[in-house]
Amino acid sequence: MAAKTLYLGPRLKKLRRELGLTQANMATDLDISASYIALMERNQRPVTAEMLLKLATTYRINVADLADEDADETVARLQSALRDPMFSDIAIEPLDIDDIATSYPGMAEALLRLHTAFGEEQLALAEKREVQQGGAGDAAPDPVAEARAFLAARRNCFPALDDSASAAARTLSSFDQMKAHIAAEHGLDLRLSDDGLLRGGLRWHDYHRRRVHIAERLDQAGRRFQAALQIAIMEQDVTIDALLAEGRFSGEDSERLVRRALQSYWAAALLMPYHAFRKAAEDLHYDVEALTARFSVSFEQVAHRLTTLQRPGEEGVPFFFLRVDRAGNVSKRLDGAGFPLARHGGACPLWNIHEVFASPGKVDAQLIELPDGERYVSIARTVRAGGGRFGERSILRAVALTCSAQHLDRLAYARAIKGAEPTPIGVACRLCHRPRCIARSAPPMGRELIPSRFRDSGVPFDFSAD
Q1: In what order do the strands lie in the sheet with 203-206?
Q2: Tens digits of residue pLDDT in 21-51
Q3: Per the database record, which ranges form the HTH cro/C1-type domain (predicted)?
Q4: What 3-state class would DSSP assign to 189?
Q5: Kindly report the CA angle at 149 between 307 and 92, in degrees rounded to 5?
Q6: CATH match for 141-271 among 1.10.10.2910, 1.20.1300.10, 3.40.1190.20, 1.25.40.10
Q7: What is the mean pLDDT of each run of 10 residues along the chain (466 residues)?
Q8: Are the beta carbons of 295 and 279 closer than 8 angstroms?
Q9: Residue 125: per-residue pLDDT
């Protein structure tokens, strides 16, 4: 079998620069011509096995050091980006993608950044059109919408944070380990404190007394998350600053919201490291309660984390997450899937995210169908925030974790809903043109209402079908 031809141009150039050598210096060391070094760095000549051995012995390096650790991930990211429909008419061979990632890593990264920026602009444009159609004119920038757009454009997946958190998780898996780490690395005393000191808060860094207080009323999952979040705040600025530099924010509020989201992302990744969590999710068929027990975290924390499993080449089921209160107000959206419901939906009362308030704490699975015929699986349950002591106010919310029905066979919930008729729902009543909907709160835009002088149709708004 013929030996594989190796083209290591960018990596060879990187090694030479790290050693502080010119092409002439390296040529002298390796007993070859400077022009041959230049040809290898431009990938116009392969690096032979003999040359690899000579590099290793001359500079006392491991041949593996010349391997591009990021090449496989770059290939996977490029493959993911090039699946965008706007590239559908371009025939791009897998080997071409490999060549670009390996031989031209700078160009590959430039393409990926442009594609991410394009996604952000598309989301921002859609948001602007919604505002204009709503008659609001040039509305002031919305920090929450900008933060959501930043996360959605990246499918709520940040491999740099996952890698950092996974490395830290080897020694920081328990609350006591986090407490010891904070004391050793930052000289801070982490302690559990009552509401009298925290005034209803969950965590307080008392800078002057060198203490970090965490509310004792939190359960173990909440305590671990707050400790992990404190570590993220103190140690992840460099990684998070680099991610924030990719965004374009209209004000400081938007940037603050994204920073807080990325800090929380790292904290969750510490409690649920990417590779271990993704494997467990597959093994347990995405059973949220089973994952909650395995990682000693809350139902909502697992639901959050499941939206982040979109690392190129290591993807899990793509989910989006929605959280609403009894009044239907949406307090959180996390999108790892790019579905329409993730960005604009949540108001349809036929969706089980609203029905689970009738059975608090019980998981419900539902097959839903949008007007365009697309079907989704919705896993919903209530979660409670606040409380913890007598008289303390709490709030009950509902969360839904939703994915395309094409993934149904991978889910533990399949046996409960397989073969069931889907529940027809809409993104919003004004945008939904389903006739005869008993739950409708407003007629759809552009449809003429049918006079009801001689007949009562039994639905709130009866309109023509065409």
Answers
A1: 189-193, 211-215, 203-206
A2: 899 999 999 999 999 998 888 878 888 888 8
A3: 12-66
A4: strand
A5: 75
A6: 1.10.10.2910
A7: 62 83 91 90 83 87 64 75 71 78 76 77 57 50 84 88 95 95 96 85 92 93 96 96 90 92 96 97 97 95 94 90 89 72 68 93 93 87 84 88 93 90 80 72 69 64 62
A8: no
A9: 58
Tokens of 92: 């791009």
Structure tokens at 27: 């040529």
Tell me, what's the pLDDT at 340? 57
Residue listed under structure tokens 């083209």: 7
Domain assignments of the chain as residue spans, ordered by start: 9-66, 71-133, 141-271
DSSP annotation string for 356-419 = GGGSTT--EEEEEE-TTS-EEEEEEEEEEEE--STT--EEEEEEEEEEEGGGGGGSTTHHHHTT
User: In this structure, what DSSP letter does residue 429 have?
Assistant: G
Question: Residue 305: which region, alpha, beta or left (left: phi > 0; alpha: psi -120 to 50)?
Answer: alpha
Does 1.10.260.40 match the CATH number of domain 9-66? yes
Please answer whether residues 80 and 110 qualify as being in contact, where contact means their C-beta atoms are separated by less than 8 angstroms. no
